[in-house]
Amino acid sequence: MDLKEKLLSSFMAFEERIDVNADLHNIRTEAFKNFENKGFPTKKEEAWKYTSLNAVLKNDYTVFPKNDTVLNYADVKKYFLHEIDTYKLVFIDGIFSSFLSSTTHDGQDICLMSSALTKPKYKEVIDAYFNKIANKDESLTSLNTAFAIEGAFINIPKNKVADKPVEIMYFSTGNESALMVQPRNLVIVGENAQVQIIERHQSLNSNPVLTNSVTEIFAAESAIVDYYKIQNDQQTANLVDNTYIAQKGKSNASVHTFSFGGNITRNNLNFYHQGERIESTLKGITLIGDKQHVDHYTLVQHASPNCESHQNYKGIFDGNSTGVFNGKIYVEKEAQKTDAFQQNNNILISEKATINAKPQLEIFADDVKCSHGCTVGQLDESAMFYMQSRGIPKKEAKALLMYAFSNEVIESIRIPELKARITKLIASKLGVNIGFDL
Description:
The protein is an alpha/beta fold. The protein is built from 10 helices and 20 strands. The chain has helices at residues 3-17, 22-38, 54-57, 73-76, 113-118, 123-129, 139-147, 381-389, 394-410, 416-430; strands at 87-92, 95-96, 109-112, 152-156, 166-172, 179-181, 184-189, 194-203, 209-219, 224-231, 237-248, 252-259, 264-274, 279-288, 293-302, 308-317, 322-331, 339-348, 354-363, 369-377. The strands form 2 sheets. It has a 10-stranded mixed beta sheet, with helices on one face. The chain is globular and about 70 Å long.
């Protein structure tokens, strides 16, 4: 039985064992029909032209883990931002871990998606936000919607600043020979409210994992959302991450994506403007080698006047790795005075590494400032020679050049402890000890 057939046979059993209202049942059923009709995406689709899931889908995944697993904090502490106090939402093989988590309902909801989907007191919020901006034509998003039950539910009310960052952690233990998980996150940030979120998916051994994640983020007027994704997984882990962000007037939303590990990683990041004076920031660093594959697919839909978006993605590719950047800025007729910038710069360390870049602008307004650019090159040999002539060993000189190349993205991280952590991860990937002040 292939994975699609297994999911088809599992859907009815899944709905029978969970408590959902009629509206959610209809949403799930429609979503599952869409996935059934479309199936998994293939390279025949333009959006997936450079990324194939065929090899990933051959594994015999367990769709529902059989047992709860307990992890000790000491065993996973290194994956948390333990230098500062944070709220923690921790899931082990897709199941919530109350032992490792720190939630709250004190003036804000930082808790479980399962509670929000099943408890009557959240019904009004779920009716207003759940599945409202997720792309209903995208097959993997539809698949997630059909099986959505667990993940993070974050609701920051009007005028509230979350008193500490939120960490969303998904651990895969390897208790199953191969596991598929489908986390669903819903983030609602009220008018003039603020939140910082760090998300990570981490396998703890080399058994294959396929994560199909969907996150919906709603930023109300003048809200500030600061979101960070750390992707530094085992090379048997595969991640498809779909993130959808709706912004109201004067809101500011930023997403930083750090892709350092995993087998195949696909990041679909979609911003939708629903008011004026909006700012959107999309930044990322990809640093991979071996046969790793990272695909960034971005969309910023400018639908209102006087808004800004800034995209800046840096890629460093070694070994037989493959990078993809497919970014689109869409400016509707009404979106006059738009200021949109998109940049994708790449360095190929190995002759066998590959980058496929396709920056796109679709502009239907006439009074805008939009630009895009893409570069693919190698390290500056003259700069390498200069540093070596000043006594810096070749390996360290090479690492410093690559760090400098990435620094424009690193400098925009607003959590100092996270900035230090990302710097250390980059140094580890480069195999050096970067010894300057952070």
